[in-house]
Design brief:
The protein is an alpha/beta fold. It folds into two domains: 152 residues, 3-Layer(aba) Sandwich (Rossmann fold); 154 residues, Dihydrodipicolinate Reductase, domain 2. It has eleven helices and 13 strands. The strands form two sheets. Strands 12-11-7-10-9-8-13 form a seven-stranded mixed sheet. A six-stranded parallel sheet has the order 3-2-1-4-5-6, sandwiched between helices. Strand 11 and strand 12 form a beta hairpin. The protein is globular.
Length: 314
């Protein structure tokens, strides 16, 4: 086989494979996460390549009053176009006509409801990157709209996958910590970054959080929460940034033990789950779990505003 013929065969094989892939679209090119997704799905040479999907189109979006969005969107958009061959389209409606599913990655949670409403109206399954929304009311409205339209969705942090293997029936309590920078425009201020720690906490202890108390300093937000069965979890959001970690408390017949673990984020499992989700329509994280997590952040916000008074989840 000549080199030219081999090249044509490789091109045809590659095109055929791409044709069989799920066609995914991105809404919001103002976060580094879009480069991670494009690397996973569009770059077969990447060691973290996940087959079965390809990013084919993206809508820029962006928020002018958030520097992390305004100052980075051009660079990320250019990378998507030039390195990964992603077409940039002029509207969410146009994007939805070209894809099988949508990754809503806008880093501004305030606009997620508006953008999700349009995607849901187009009947496209969607993944909503953190934060799900900037208020509990917006989060519940996204869930209501999706349920009424029969559109599957889910939202999660990659830190959920980092601690899944640590979950155990004998856990009597957990303390988790990680970065906690705040963003002034988000009403639920811990949703901006500390949602990663919240995902760790809820993955390890499950649902059933009942009451929340939040204490503030310049360096940290500390949220203590009591579960209905008596277990206590603590979340520490450190500023400006920190590593992730967890202390796991286990109760035996004779005593209680503790174990400290460093936690490292991984994206590969989420990337694989996304392919399974867009294929099956079954969310890997139940929507009810995600909504309780947002209700937890809402209670933490109300506790902060009340000077550290305990607050029950709404």
């Amino acid at each position: 086989m000549t080199r030219a013929v081999a090249a044509i065969v490789a091109l045809l094989t590659s095109s055929s494979a791409f044709a069989a892939d799920l066609r995914l679209g991105i809404v919001g090119t103002d976060t580094s996460h879009v480069i991670g997704f494009a690397t996973a799905y569009n770059d077969p040479s990447s060691p973290d390549h996940v087959p079965g999907a390809r990013i084919v189109a993206a809508f820029r979006g962006g928020s002018q009053d958030i520097p992390a969005s305004r100052d980075r969107i051009d660079g990320f958009t250019r990378q998507l176009q030039e390195k990964f061959g992603v077409e940039i389209v002029a509207s969410i409606a146009e994007l939805c006509r070209r894809v099988d599913g949508v990754l809503l990655t806008s880093n501004d949670g305030r606009i997620h409801l508006t953008q999700a409403r349009e995607i849901i109206a187009a009947r496209k399954p969607l993944f909503i990157d953190k934060p799900l929304a900037s208020t509990l009311e917006d989060a519940r409205e996204i869930a209501r709209l999706a349920k009424a339209a029969g559109v599957p969705w889910f939202s999660t942090s990659t830190l959920r996958y980092a601690v899944t293997g640590l979950k155990a029936a004998d856990l009597s309590g957990v303390e988790v910590w990680g970065p906690g920078p705040l963003e002034e425009h988000h009403h639920l201020d811990l949703s901006w970054y500390a949602i990663h720690e919240a995902e760790m906490l809820f993955t390890l202890l499950g649902t059933g959080c009942e009451e929340v108390t939040r204490v503030e300093s310049a360096d940290a937000s500390v949220v203590a929460c009591r579960w209905k069965d008596g277990r206590i979890g603590t979340m520490r959001a450190l500023r400006p940034y920190s590593d992730y970690g967890a202390i796991l408390f286990r109760k035996t017949e004779k005593n209680q033990t503790s174990e400290t673990r460093a936690i490292r984020a991984t994206t590969v499992e989420l990337d694989r789950d996304l392919v399974r989700f867009f294929t099956s329509g079954i969310p890997p994280v139940p929507n009810e779990d995600t909504l309780e997590l947002i209700a937890f952040l809402d209670a933490a916000q109300r506790s902060k505003e009340a000077g550290g008074q305990p607050m029950r989840l709404r």
